[in-house]
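Quick one: structure tokens for this chain, please?
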Amino acid sequence: MKTNHFYTLVFALIGILATTLFSGCTKDFLKPDPLSFYEPDITFADRAGIEATTYMLDRHLRTYWSHLSTRDISVPMNTEYMLSDIAVSAKTDDGNIFSDVATRLTPTDGIFDNDVNMISFFWGETYNGIKYANTITTYIDGVPGLDETAKHEFLGRAYFHRAFRYLALCFQFKDVPLVTRILTDGPKQNYKTTSREAILEMITSDMEKAVAWVPNQSQMAYVGMINKGACRQLLLKCYLATGQWDKAIAQADTLISHSGYALMSNTFGTFDNPAPVAWPITRNVIWDLHRPANKAIATNKEAILVMPNREGTDATIRYKSMRNWGPMWNQAALKSPGGKVLQSYAKTNASYRALYDINGAFGRGIAMIRPTHFAQNGLWSVNGINDVTDLRHNSTVGNWVRMDSLKYNDPTDPFFGQKLRLYNGNTILCTDTIRSWFDWPHYKIYIDDPVFLATPGSNRNDGGAADWYCYRLAETYLLRAEANFYKGNIAQATADVNAVRTRAQCSQLYSTVNLGDIVNERARELYMEEWRHMELSRISYSLALSGKADEWGNTYNVNTLSENSYWYQRIQHYNDYYNKNKVTVRGRNYVIAPHNIYWPIPQGAIDANLYAKLRQTPGYNGYNANVEIWTNWEDAVADENTTGN
């Protein structure tokens, strides 16, 4: 079966090209060497060259969730979560901890240290991805031997990648430069900003073409390439971003009912029970759905677009997921009532006990980010009831881990074998509750670490490479629910949210939903899959377009979202770090401002644009509403051949 072939095999074959393409990844898109990463006359001399460029685009897509290479600490996706309602930065041993967002997030300061946040990564790598897509749109007419069908397939996939990245830029940074081609007559240093509305109009039109041109997965040789289903999902989001609710619903209807996809409701694939003595898993569909070995298999009907990432290939990037996202339980800040620290014993250590193997069961985390109290607790209450049967928050089956489920594991500890406790009487036993005391979704972040598994003397279980979801059908249901909410079709919206909850075996279903219920369900279902900040920004914009009220009765204006937005209100209501202004780490308060819904354009990009002025994002130093911008994407495209120097 063709669709059983995994795209990782292709990734492994293009390692040399990857080195060439990615050698310039940190370069700004405005710098005067846009052609330095390839030789177009050679690369596009035949079909193989354009195929390789397409493969690299697909490979590049996953770097937002991981990185360009394995990182010991911090991955790009962390930034999307620490600027949302459900997580914050947690690296308390770092004097630059990114907590005081309102004051630190500026065009020149606080956005360039990749161990603090990776906003600069999102800017630079997103424009690199656009550049790679533009190589296809620019040079495809010169590739010999391509018929119109093949040409349209390549163009459709390039449109997907460009639109995916511009949709992100529009809701991370707002108005940005529009770049649609590779210049052949020298660098362009007179870009003007293009309005978000104009860019959204262009990418929506592009994605309509992509949906028509890109084949279904069943017609493709590899899993992991952009397929028609992925194009529909992105077009659906474009329709939501442009206020076209009926068209959004139509795309969702096609995906849900007429494309061969289905929510997985029963166990399937390979069952992985990594620590059956210390933390046994009762097999369940949510656990199976998120096992790396099951994400790209043919029996997984829920996967729309998977990003392959396999061990043993040149394309391997290890997520170190447990290290990044798990609590730092192995430090002196967390002690038993007997004064002992939890131990990460290697299996060869005489004190090792399989029953108390915290490291082997959960990994040795360092908590680069941590979930909010709301994300751990309040989020899971529906109809005023804590839904204990929800598989995504269920400790009984092993999917969710509570700190007080762990056990003291030092044999010399008088409390050995007893469950962890936060207090001993009135004495708190954890002096760093930010980093070392929180509950987490084990089913999402556990990834087998091949180095740890192959090394009995190792006490570092960080996490390995893993296939990851870009789009799943569960999100399609929630996107359709959102579109129906904007149209006032509350019954249909409720049914879609309940479909996702029913699959998770929830006991509490909604009788009616508001926007907050839909967005909460996204948090429950799509943790570490959705770009949480960007999606909240996009939803804030869509809500303002609709004129509908949020769950608190607020309505919003698309022109003043930097002053007040649904994103900001969710943080004020739910993020117990940013909304109290009382939590301090190393002299830095957790604080965020309304204008942080959008991020600043890096000053370096503005300075490199020598012959024109880019408009800074509202709320940041240098913003000037009088700086002229393109409000028509055709005008911006027509101007691209005008270098101005």
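Confidence is low (pLDDT under 50) at residues 6-37.
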